[in-house]
């Protein structure tokens, strides 16, 4: 609700855009439009299709169906260069600047033009042009400053200037004010920097149109004139900030108000707290890793889910990798099944019955290029071996059993796992651990990241089943909602230390607010 | 209204379909087909090529190359490369010349052990210091070459005393085939069979395809890397024995010219240079291809000095054809 709603022909329009990847429809018939001098918010959960949409706008992907119109004229971008020439600039989530050279060189990277003569920079010309670009948003940053001497917020400003400088490309195809796309610009900003960015956007809108992507609903409501909600690849709603609150946006984004059924809370087992420690499967006392976390203690029992909540930098990611031996511990004691363990590599952890479902599924979870069957047997094939030799019939039977149990959709067990959808790949990762007779502890690091709703529900179902079979689970989740719903107990971490412990028994769950208060 | 790149058509560019399995198999068969074609081509020009004597000589000459290429296969499967294999084999012949007279069979065993350790050292440095194998083995290539020169006094040392330990490699024949060739082919078959029947037999492939995922599934990638390089060293030792037997001597650069063809044999056979796809049987086909190519060149009247030019070209061409570029983010 920040400015007058401008009317006029859209500067940018998507009509019925569909984008498919093997096994997934990333965008399904999405239509949005951006009008002159407008700030359009775009929200959605992870995997809702936000980044695919942005990549189509910036020319990285091409849509399979539908139309992209720039100032009313159909466009098709074959690469980032085409998008820039059509006046669409992107402020990337991860900064795309070259740190070791000057601001001016960064701003005019790839557009040096007359500033280069005979292979040499004409510095005065280059710096003058850079200064002119910086002046557009009233920035006083020196063109000759080296980028890695600037603060994060200053660098982000350079990104903004770079994004709007697309309007000065000599070979531009659209001669009009640019569209600037902000891809989750606030996820690493706080306080003053955030205010600077918002002020920046306010100033920018007088000379450009803006698409603002974020999953922080309050920010989107504050800065946008209109908000589009993406869910599972579809555009499910278009709202104006005056007529909607964060609650409703959230409901639109997630697609439901009540969560109990979704997470199968009724299937969550209960614990008699008096018998507590006899059943301990995973125990930790005073774990520490210098610079990451310190003095972390907890205990997970048979059939229990321990959720770990915390913001980025709270140390929870490092903690769960350390439990699996992927990072070294500096101190403290770790116990599995009552026995003290020390893991120097993940191999030690696997041997002791600890499994890990990594957040980086594509690099650390599945072995791309190997078959589904080989992936399932990658961690532990001892049950289907005779001494050092494989027993093919047993292998095939075990693989078949797990493909069926987890409903992995694959043409056959010999299929390259890389060709499966994200959800099915994640099921293969789960099967890899669950098929191991040794498994006692499973660490789930963002297990539903990037999965569609159906696959998420499957993962929740497996978590419940695994608990039923006595597995101890440590869960790091993308959302607090998921953490609370799935866990029996929740550990909140802040700045590398345990800030609070919550019981989260079925029917007596803490609220998100309870957790957030301890997180920040 | 200004023009905007390309068309207004909303027709879909279809997502490229996932590679089906049959084309992959077809590609795997290409080297074998080329081999057959090449053999036939040479045979039509020179029918004597297919005679028993000629084939026997061919196999005999293939043995050192095949052994080096087999060692190279293990390393390339993990995604690395061993540039020091041939130099190690040369060094091995020098060691044999020095140690056979004093140790006999024990001397031969010591040479195999020493070269395995030298290979393992390559792997150790790569794994612990996290240095690309290309750089490490480029360094050790110079290192062992220098050591071989120093130890041998830069000269060929003929083997007289103790030669009876290795004479069988040259002189013994089973069913008309030289034992050296049988040993080399046997080593290839053994490796291929073990990769198939062991429950961890595909670990090197897994590592080459997805090292992080293998590690995060409990694979001991450090040990696997060291194992691959140690096997490369062991194969270099076997190649050294065959060479020393056929030359009655050891010399500090006896096997050096086999480096390029041994890598060529692996990639021409269809093992992918980025690792994970391929195996010993493909290397057997590749080694035969390289050798027949050499014969073919001499039949066609190409001067021997051109051979390295052909190997170099063939390596680049084979890699260009087999590399799956989707798996390589940035080519350096």
Features of the shown structure:
heterodimer; A: 520 residues; alpha/beta; Rossmann fold; 3 domains; 6-stranded mixed beta sheet; 17 helices; 24 strands; 30% helix; globular; B: 332 residues; mainly alpha; ABC transporter involved in vitamin B12 uptake, BtuC; two-stranded antiparallel sheet; 13 helices; 4 strands; 2% strand
Quick overview of this protein structure:
Chain A is α/β, with parallel strands linked by helices. In chain A, about 30% of the residues lie in helices and about 25% in strands.
- CATH class of chain B reads Mainly Alpha
Principal-axis shape of chain B equals globular
CATH superfamily of the largest domain in chain A: P-loop containing nucleotide triphosphate hydrolases
- Could you name the ranges of chain B where pLDDT drops below 50 across 5 or more consecutive residues? 1-21
What's the CATH class label of the largest domain in chain A?
Alpha Beta
Which structural class should the secondary elements of chain B be placed in? Answer: mainly alpha
